[in-house]
Structures are given as C-alpha cells and as structure tokens.
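Handout, page 2. Input:
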Amino acid sequence: MYFIFLLSQYSIFVTGQLENDTIKLFSDRMCEFFPDPACTFMNKTLTKSNIDKFPNNCTTVCADFEILWFSELSEDKLRNAFKNMKHLIGNVHISETRIVKCDFLAGLESIDTEIGEITIRNNENMTELNLSSLATLNCTTLDISENGRLEKIDISKLQNLTRNGPKMYYMSPGVGIILAYLSPKFCIKFDEMEHFLSIENGDFSLIYANYCTPVLEDNICTKPEANCTRFFGDLIIGPNFTDQEKLRSLVSIFGRLVINGSDFENLNFLENLIYIAPLGWGNTNYTHIKYNNSKSYAVQILNNAKLEDYYFPALKRVRSDSKLAVTIKNNNEELLYNSKSCEKLENALIKEYIQVDGKYCSNIGTYEYLRDQRRMKRLIVFCGVGVAILIIFLIVLYCCCKKEK
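Output:
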C-alpha cells in the first residue's frame, strides 16, 4: 500500500508540473529574475502569428516553446528567429511538423529546463537534425524518436549533462538520450559511441540503431589482432582460447564480451579495455528496421571454474540494452563470496550494477560474512570435539598407567 501511495503521489506531482503554464514555470525558475524582459518569450506554441515576437537578437532566451503541426512555420522563418540564440532557459518540443532539415537550432549551446524533456518526435519528413553546438543539457531526457526518415543527427559536442526533476529509485540517474525508431539508414559511428560513453551523466541505453559500416579510418578489427584497439562484433572467449596477448591493446569492444568456459584465473590480459558497447537491438513490433543482435547482457562471464578475480583493470563504461549490463554465473565457487572483486568492478563502472549468480555486490558481502561465521562455528565445534577426544584419551591413558602400577 505504501508503494502504491508513493506512485500516486509521484504521478500527481509530475502531472501538476506538466500542466503548469509558462508563467508558472517562469515564477519557479531563473526567468523570474531574468534581467532582460526583452529576451523572454511568453507564448507556449510558436506559430506564424507570434514568431515575430520571438527575441531573435538575444543570445540567452527564456522561453518554454513548442513547434507543432499547425504552427505553419517555414524553415527560413525558424532560422531567422533562432539565429542568435545560444542559451535557452525552458523546454523545447518539436512534434508532427513538416520540417525537413532541422538546422535552425545549430547555434544553440545549452538548454536548461525545469523538470522537462527535450523532445523531437513524430516529424515524418525530417531527414536531418543539427544540434552541432549543443554541449550542455539540464533536463531529464533528450528524446529524438519516431522520425521515420531521420538519417543524420549531429550532437557531437554534447558533454555536460545534469539530470533534474524527481529522482525515483527506478529512474535512470543520468540524462536519458533516446535515439529510436528512426530511418533504417541512421547509424552510430564508432567515434560517436566512444564520445557518448565518455559522458559521465548520460544514459545511452535507449539507442535503437546499428553501427555504421566500418571504414579504414575507424581502425576496426573483427578478430583478435596484435595492436588492435577497437573490436567490432561480439568477442567470444571460450575454452582453449590462446589469443589473449593480442587483446592487451584493446580499448573498445563494439559488441558483447562473452567469457565462457575459459581456464583464466583473472582478466588482466584485458588491461587497456575501457568501453564495451553492443548495439543492434530494437523493439521490432514498432519498426521495420532489422537489428543485428538480440537483447542480452553486454558482459557475460560464465562457467570459468578457475577464475579467481573478474576485475578489469581499466574498464569505465558498459552500455547495454538490458537493465543489468554485467552477469557473472557458474564460475569458481569462491566468487560467490568475493565481495572485493564485485565492488572493485562496480566502483570502476559509471552507474552500473553487477550481479554474481543473481546476487548484488552488497548481498555478496553478507553471504561472505555468513560463510565466515559458519566456518568459524565449524572450527569451534571441530576444536571442541578435538579437545574432548584429547581429554578422554589422556584420562584413559592415565587410568591404564595407574592400573599397571
């Protein structure tokens, strides 16, 4: 009942916030104290009748606006309105428009919302989205989805992300970046993914796309090779694997890492591995795009009987479609009680949780403590029995000796 109450209160809170009009938004935020009223736009929906009121000479604008199907705005009009805007305080929603080339926000460097999303959705004619200057976001989500012809997206300078709004336990702690249900021609470059994964407060689990076809400049290998730093595809390490020396230079795996049935005692041969990022899963019920992979854990460490430590010396980020990025099962039994290995790996990763045979790191510490307590009790019992036997033996020996005398 308490959980239901919390959900109901959260729903009321969010709904109330979303229903606030622009004036209420401004009274709650920095725009209440904004020094230049001439750089504040008070209308909610941009249309051909009010776009001339947009403060197009300002570099910092306070506005909470949306562009919708009935806005009837040409791309030239929008470019002129936003030509000098570099910093926006407010929300942005672009939905169900006829815009083809969305480049009028190319000069925008930062967006600071209240608890809102930035949404660009359901624009069936849009083929390009240029946010090439956007570096700073303060929001819950950047949602670019269901634009079925969108092939090119430039968010290459994205770097400083801060998640605002309510923080419930089931929510991502980072700013959600959604790139989903776009053109079949849309793909993620390898450089882009490495850049995304370097952003500490970004959640990139909702990217439904494939990687772009590798080109020579990508320096990609598809099988273990000496001096290779980028591996494309699933790296499967199984019994009798002998190429571990070739993997010492590896920095990024653009696919899953599966270590299954090996004889390794540790994973130190992956000493330079920083990123693991499979792509290629999507909900095919809602799209005609064929994805390359099935949904699964990004890192799988399974059935390695001799494994004593599964810590990766340099690993920082694992991107996964599943809630848990890393699964560790059926290995050396001692790993079930090795909380240090689990905590080392979990602490090295950015906002990821680890499970070992279905147990989180915090649970492993408890199991380790209980095991040690059981061992101590067995030792005490064993010692007690041993002492008792020794005493009985000494008594018998004493009696025998006394009888002989």
